[in-house]
User: Which sequence fits this backbone?
């Protein structure tokens, strides 16, 4: 054995004593596997196949909740945007109330005031004798008594109801003067007097006392007529439930600006209210005397509401079956006194700054009612053809 061979054997034995062979010591360490290979071997946390059963259940529940929320949101979005199609209707003139025989088309109500007011409604003969109603070729007037200085049990006034009833139509009321003054509660409205509230009530013009805040247009119905829906109107919404037992029978009202009633309205020469009653809903427009549509100012026999723009008040059928809640309606004009609205202290004294007690004021202040009168140029009713 050569000397070199002995040296090599000695180096080999020293290497084995350190726990490795020379060939292993000189080899580089193995490289770690690529990242995606490592993930593949232990399983991605984003892969459902690698989720625990509890995680899978929670994920499914979460997905269902999200899906339900999307469906509910879509349904509510569709529901919130429901609105009837007020397609154009062709109208023809059916009735005209005007001229010297204006009041011959009405019955005079002479019973105890059903609204609990302080008015004494007198019969036709008495009203004509005392000039509380009279008509000329150009207008008809309905007034409150201004003669008696100290009345007992109420002050004389008038309430008239049309002899004809209506289920639908386009109603055009040309009003020259609206009543106002402390203690007054006037209204121009439609109702079935023998079946209220089942057949509904539509208040075209109504205000109390000094009437400075604008006209109120209101529906009163039996249960099941609400207006918390999409509407197209320029007036201010007051209440949304029309059912007479809610909000102390406030009804679902819409208020117009100050010039739509009272002293300002009168100073402007009055104006025209138009009300359309149809299956799709009830809409009310107001036009100042200076801005009448051509098909109203020209006394057209076929007015077209589709050209009049946005209504002042809109009561769509969306959550109110118009045909079910309204029908057999008479046109009524009256001037009540005091009562639960005009006579309440928070309205009579605080809101309208009227003095003392309403009934005492009405009984003892005859001259306070000089402005308490309706003056109508005409009423016209059109039916669809």
Assistant:
């Amino acid at each position: 054995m050569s000397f070199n061979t002995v040296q090599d054997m000695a180096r080999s034995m020293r290497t084995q004593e350190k726990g490795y062979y020379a060939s292993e010591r000189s080899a580089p360490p193995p490289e770690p596997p690529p990242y995606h290979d490592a993930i593949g071997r232990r399983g991605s946390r984003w892969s459902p196949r690698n989720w625990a059963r509890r995680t899978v259940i929670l994920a499914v529940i979460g997905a269902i909740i999200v899906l339900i929320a999307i469906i509910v949101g879509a349904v509510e979005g569709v529901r919130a945007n429901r609105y009837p199609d007020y397609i154009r209707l062709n109208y023809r003139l059916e009735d005209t109330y005007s001229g010297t025989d204006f009041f011959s088309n009405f019955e005079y109500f002479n019973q105890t005031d059903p609204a609990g007011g302080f008015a004494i409604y007198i019969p036709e003969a008495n009203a004509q004798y005392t000039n509380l109603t009279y008509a000329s070729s150009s207008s008809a007037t309905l007034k409150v008594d201004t003669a008696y200085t100290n009345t007992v049990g109420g002050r004389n006034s008038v309430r008239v109801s049309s002899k004809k009833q209506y289920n639908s139509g386009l109603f055009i009321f040309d009003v020259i003067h609206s009543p106002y003054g402390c203690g007054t509660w006037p209204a121009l409205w439609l109702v079935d007097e023998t079946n209220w509230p089942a057949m509904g009530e539509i208040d075209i013009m109504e205000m109390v006392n000094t009437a400075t805040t604008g006209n109120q247009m209101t529906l009163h119905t039996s249960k099941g007529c609400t207006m918390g829906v999409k509407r197209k109107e320029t007036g201010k919404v007051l209440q949304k439930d029309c059912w007479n037992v809610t909000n102390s029978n406030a009804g679902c009202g819409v208020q117009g600006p100050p010039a739509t009633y009272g002293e300002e309205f009168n100073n402007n020469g009055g104006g025209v209210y138009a009300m359309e009653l149809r299956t799709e809903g009830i809409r009310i427009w107001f036009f100042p005397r200076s801005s009448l549509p051509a098909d109203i100012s020209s006394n057209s026999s076929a007015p077209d509401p589709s050209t009049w723009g946005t209504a002042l008040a809109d009561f769509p059928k969306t959550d109110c079956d118009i045909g079910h809640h309204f029908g057999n309606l008479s046109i009524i004009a009256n001037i009540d006194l005091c009562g639960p609205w005009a006579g309440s202290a928070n309205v009579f004294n605080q809101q309208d700054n009227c003095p003392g007690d309403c009934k005492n004021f009405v009984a003892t202040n005859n001259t306070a009612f000089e402005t308490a009168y309706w003056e109508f140029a005409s009423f016209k009713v059109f039916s669809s053809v």
About this structure: The chain is about 25% helix and 25% strand. Residues 94 and 323 are 20 Å apart (CA to CA). The first helix runs from residue 3 to 17.
